[in-house]
Structures are given as structure tokens and as C-alpha cells.
């Protein structure tokens, strides 16, 4: 029977034999929990016809389960030294294509085409993201690429809680609104720190984001939506009559008139507004202001 890298002893043995040391600077914490690995792989409902992009596969702990599903898997790995290890660890479980590079810098669409040719069906993304760079990667995927169907992601638990927070809570913020504007985001499971080697100092969370197939706003109104969101959260303790001032070029009367036209109390704070209210504000601002 082939032992997988989610077995802690197997992973340590493989790393030791290959003289491979995890790099804290790259956020290399390898998954050693088989139950979590299976939940991640099952969540996107992968078929043999799918193209799956895995970001940051590392040694291949999760990749081994992915390739068994027999889809077209493209792994994007930034660590040059991890790639031979990844290839060797995965080859007995299935076929894997690998791109060496930074997901923030490569052209993902061209990388997919170079390995699998032109593709019509939308792809699925799976990622165990380094905590320090989670938001930039998620926003890149959501803003730049329109060929993604879903993103199943492991993030720091605190970040995950922000992604699914309710309006008026401490965790609720600009990230919450951005994630929910582009996707329908649902939590899959919590993951304790001992499910990784080496163990990080914090727990994690797995979430699945189903990309909205239709945009909620036009491009012009979407730009205004995010401008209003930034104003609403730049200084959380300010009331709307003050936090929205930059959008109205410092004109307090115009700001008050705008809020009054929407029946929104100017003494409310941006963190209390639901996404539907920000959308409503953006639509009115586009039409009338």
C-alpha cells in the first residue's frame, strides 16, 4: 500500500531523505490530515473532464489526492527546490503538470493553454495559501480571470472568519464585501494547527467560493461600489456622513443629501451596511451624483 504524505511519519521521512527543509518565508506548512485533504478534494466535485489548478502544492500532500480524481491538474509552485520532490511524490498516484513561478506574476490563462490547449469549460482552483499573501492572491484570481468556476482555499482562520462575516461584526470589512461581491462563499471545515507540518501558530479554515456567473453591477457602477466600500472602512469609527466625504470631494451637504435620498441614517458607520446597501448606494451615485 502506498503511504501518502498526509501521514506525518511518511512526510518527515520523505523530507529527510531528500534533505528538504521547509521555508517559513514561503509559508510552507504541509497538510498531514487525511480527513481534511479528502474534504478539500471532494468539495469542488471534480470530474475527469475538469482542469484543476493547485496553487502552492509544496511537497504534494494534497496533490496526491487530487490526481487520483484523474482531472487535468496544473500545479503552480514558486519554490524551485520543491518541484522535483513534488513530481516524485505524485507520479505514482496520477499525472501532474507543473509550472514553476509566482501565481501573482505568471499568466495563468497562457500556462493552462500551454499544457492543455484551448479550454472552454471553466476551471477549478484549489489552494493552501501562505497567510501573509492570501488577500493579494484571492483578489488577483477574482478580478483578473473570468474563466474560474470555483476556488477552494485554505486560509488562516481569522481571515476565513472575515470572508464570511456578518455586517456589524468586528470581522466584517472590505474583504468580506469583495469576496461576497464576486462569489458565494461557504465554509467547509476548520483545521487545527496540528494538522500541518511544521505546525503554524494559528488554526486554519477551508472555504469554497463559487464564482458568480453574472456580475452584480456593470463595470462603471462596480468601480463606484468599491470606492464606497473603501471609504466606508478606511476609518471604521467614523459615521457615514464623515467617512463618505472623500467620495464627494469633501462636500458635506452633498454627502448628507446622498444618504438622505437613500433613507440611510448618516450617523451609521460603514461596518453596519450590508452588501445590498453598498450596491444600492453605488447605483444611486452612478445615476445622480
Topology diagram in text:
Elements (H helix, E strand, L loop, with lengths): L7 H10 L12 E2 L2 H9 L8 E5 L7 H6 L3 E6 L4 H9 L6 E4 L7 H9 L6 E6 L5 H11 L3 E9 H7 L10 H9 E9 L4 E2 L6 E8 L7 H16 L5 H4 L8 H10 L13 H14 L1
Parallel strand pairs: 2-3, 2-5, 3-4, 5-6
Antiparallel strand pairs: 1-8, 6-9, 7-9
Helix pairs in contact: 6-8, 9-12
Description of the structure:
The protein is of the alpha/beta class. It has two domains: 8-211, Vaccinia Virus protein VP39 (Rossmann fold), CATH 3.40.50; 219-288, rRNA adenine dimethylase, C-terminal domain (Helicase, Ruva Protein, domain 3, Orthogonal Bundle), CATH 1.10.8. It has helices spanning 8-17, 34-42, 63-68, 82-90, 108-116, 134-144, 157-163, 174-182, 219-234, 240-243, 252-261, 275-288, and strands at 30-31, 51-55, 72-77, 97-100, 123-128, 148-156, 183-191, 196-197, 204-211. The strands form two sheets. A seven-stranded mixed β-sheet has the order 4-3-2-5-6-9-7, with helices on both faces. It has a two-stranded antiparallel sheet with strand order 1-8. Helix 6 runs parallel beside helix 8 (174-182) and helix 9 crosses helix 12 (275-288). It is elongated. The N and C termini lie far apart (67 Å). The mean pLDDT is 95.
Amino acid at each position: 500500500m502506498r503511504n501518502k504524505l498526509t501521514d506525518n511519519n511518511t512526510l518527515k521521512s520523505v523530507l529527510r531523505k531528500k534533505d528538504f527543509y521547509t521555508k517559513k518565508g514561503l509559508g510552507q506548512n504541509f497538510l498531514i490530515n487525511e480527513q481534511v485533504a479528502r474534504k478539500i478534494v471532494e468539495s469542488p466535485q471534480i470530474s475527469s473532464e475538469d482542469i484543476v489548478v493547485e496553487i502552492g502544492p509544496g511537497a504534494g500532500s494534497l496533490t496526491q489526492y487530487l490526481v487520483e480524481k484523474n482531472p487535468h491538474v496544473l500545479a503552480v509552485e514558486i519554490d524551485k527546490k520543491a518541484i522535483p520532490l513534488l513530481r516524485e511524490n505524485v507520479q505514482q498516484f496520477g499525472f501532474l503538470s507543473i509550472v514553476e513561478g509566482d501565481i501573482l506574476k505568471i499568466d495563468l490563462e497562457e500556462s493552462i493553454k500551454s499544457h492543455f490547449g484551448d479550454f472552454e469549460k471553466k476551471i477549478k482552483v484549489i489552494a493552501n495559501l501562505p497567510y501573509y499573501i492570501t488577500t493579494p492572491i484571492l483578489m488577483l484570481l477574482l478580478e483578473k480571470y473570468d474563466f474560474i468556476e470555483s476556488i477552494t482555499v485554505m486560509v488562516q482562520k481569522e481571515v476565513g472568519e472575515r470572508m464570511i462575516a456578518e455586517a456589524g461584526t468586528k470581522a466584517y470589512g472590505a474583504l468580506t464585501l469583495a469576496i461576497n461581491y464576486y462569489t458565494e462563499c461557504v465554509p467547509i471545515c476548520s483545521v487545527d494547527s496540528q494538522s500541518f507540518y511544521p505546525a503554524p501558530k494559528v488554526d486554519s479554515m477551508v472555504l469554497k467560493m463559487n464564482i458568480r456567473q453574472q456580475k452584480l453591477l456593470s463595470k462603471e457602477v462596480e468601480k463606484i461600489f468599491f470606492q464606497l466600500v473603501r471609504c466606508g472602512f478606511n476609518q471604521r469609527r467614523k459615521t457615514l456622513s464623515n467617512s463618505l466625504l472623500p467620495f464627494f470631494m469633501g462636500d458635506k451637504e452633498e454627502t448628507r443629501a446622498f444618504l438622505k435620498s437613500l433613507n440611510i441614517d448618516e450617523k451609521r458607520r460603514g461596518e453596519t451596511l450590508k452588501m445590498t446597501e453598498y450596491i444600492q448606494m453605488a447605483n444611486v451615485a452612478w445615476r445622480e451624483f
